[in-house]
Amino acid sequence: MTVTGRAHVAARERLLDPTGDSDLAVDTTLSPRLRSVRGLTVGLLENAKPNASVLLSAVARELRRAHGVQASVMYTKSYFGTPAEESLIQRILHNCDFAVAGIGD
Fold first, then answer.
1. Exposed, middle or buried by CB within 10 Å (0-12, 13-18, 19+), for 41?
2. DSSP string spanning 19-85?
């Protein structure tokens, strides 16, 4: 495969934190993929921008309809321009089996 006439070479990408809050390394290990979401509770994290909750509500309906998700819980960040607060992350971890984050505008 070529990109702009050059051979494409796979390389390890470096994940940058767009918040610029810290130079500390962050664990970017992904969680294992769930085999099924049937019967589970999804946490929906919206960024407090217009239409984020509308989008995530539609995602929740589709997850229930097509994939058997049992329940959904909507969470809202305090401000769209900052990372989710640790207390909010902990609430999601303790009350939900998996999470979906959405943005709006």
1. middle
2. T----S----PPPPPPS--TT-EEEEEE-SSTTHHHHHHHHHHHHHHHH---EEEEEE-S-TTSPPP
Instruction: Select from 65, 19, 24 the least CA-distant residue to 42.
Output: 65
Q: Is the pLDDT score of 71 beyond 50?
A: yes
Q: Residue 12 has which token pair?
A: 């390890």
Over residues 34-65, the pLDDT tens digits come to 999 999 999 999 999 989 999 999 999 999 99
